[in-house]
Amino acid sequence: MLTAGFLSSSGAFAQSIQVDEYNFLFPTNQLNEEANALAVRALGFATNNFSATVANETATAFGSADVFGEWIATTPFANGQVQVFNFNIFDPAYEGGGLSDTLSIVLSGRQPTVLDPNNMTINFSFRSDNLSGTPALGALFGGISITESGYFQSVNAFLPAQFVGDVAAPLTVSFRSDVVPEPSAIQFGLLSLASLPFLLRLRNKR
User: Fold this and answer.
1) How far apart are CA 167 and CA 13, in angstroms?
2) Cα→Cα distances 36→26, 76, 87, 96, 178, Å
3) What does the alpha-carbon distance between residue 191 and residue 133 come to, in Å, rounded to a whole number?
4) Which of 27, 44, 102, 173 has the fewest beta carbons closer than 10 A?
5) Cβ–Cβ under 8 Å, residues 64 and 3
6) Considering the entire predicted model, what is its pTM?
């Protein structure tokens, strides 16, 4: 099921992929749990050969977001050169610390042609655990461990600087996973509600 995919032409001179378990429905700093509305936003890739597919997690199926795109990098890989970047994304400790999501990014150099001048490709694959936890999501081999925060988290620091720092065509990749607010945040919210009548009485006395 294609939930969301927004793209621009290669004339944007910047490539970005965002995957969001809130389907971009909440503000950037909104913490929530099990929004079950996975979506992907891909910008700046060439329209030829571009694809983006998304499916929400169910009781037994993993959520998924897959993007394939091409672009023109200032300093591309050699034709056929491939680098794989795997990430294992875990719940916070107060949620149990279990594996929640995985992200795999495959960057490949390609030979440009007259009809297709793009010299780089990206295969982006995001998986989210299902709602029941059975079967369990498997960790990616050699994956970099990241603890999800509920905010958009960039993986740019782990990608080649020649692409992330490309002045003409920078590449950026980020994700946002669903997270229960920390107990301290919940307690603060309850405290704020509890103090509301007192604050109203104080205001009325003025």
Assistant:
1) 9
2) 13, 37, 21, 20, 9
3) 33
4) 27
5) no
6) 0.83
Q: What number of residues does the chain have?
A: 206
Task: Round to whole Å and give the CA distance between 199 and 105.
Answer: 51
Residue 166 tokens, joined: 């490309």
Rounded alpha-carbon distances, angstroms, from residue 104 to 156, 168, 185: 13, 25, 31
Write the pLDDT tens digit of every residue in 158-184: 999 999 999 999 999 999 998 876 665
d(CA 134, CA 149): 23
Supply 30's token pair.
């909104």
Question: Residue ranges of the domains in the chain?
Answer: 10-205
Say if CB 3 and CB 25 are below 8 A apart.
Answer: no
Reading the block at residue 154, the tokens are 């960039």
Q: Write out the H or E segment, with its range, that includes residue 42.
A: strand 39-43
